[in-house]
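tool=predict chain=A
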Amino acid sequence: MLDRALLALFALLVAVLSLGTLVVVAGWAVPLDLFELSLRRPDYRIIAGLVATVLFLLALRFLVASVRPAAAREEQAVIKAAELGTASISLPALENLVIRAARQVKGVREVRTRLHVLPEGLSVKLNITVSPDRNLPELAAALQQQVHEYIVATAGLEVPEVQVRVNGIYQEGVRRAE
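tool=predict ok
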């Protein structure tokens, strides 16, 4: 949040200075005269120096941030905490488990997942494409049950919610007799 506020401030200051430069280049000398007049007074000179320092520090901060590689922080869920340490599983590994469980339900054709680790367990959101002529409420209930049981059994995590969203019905191509 702080970076966004600093970036907004930096963008605003650069935009104002760019606009001032553009109007001076276009031939309007009033901003240039005002700037020159302000540098003659010591108190205005201090303000101009502070603005220039802030711009320089912000530019330096964003330059360093853009060059430095971002630390890849992979979200994990703790499977077991013991006196020797903790065992955890990454979200991509959990996604693979969820997809595996979902594909075991008859009628599920494609699965996309979104997982969130909550204090009470793992929240699972599934976006699926299903085979035609399936009873959707029954399929969704079976899918929720299968994913819940599979994650509890394999990863030992609580799954307080499994949300299912049917994004599409799989349409097989029409075969033509030639």
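The longest helix spans residues 42-67. The two ends are 63 Å apart (CA to CA).
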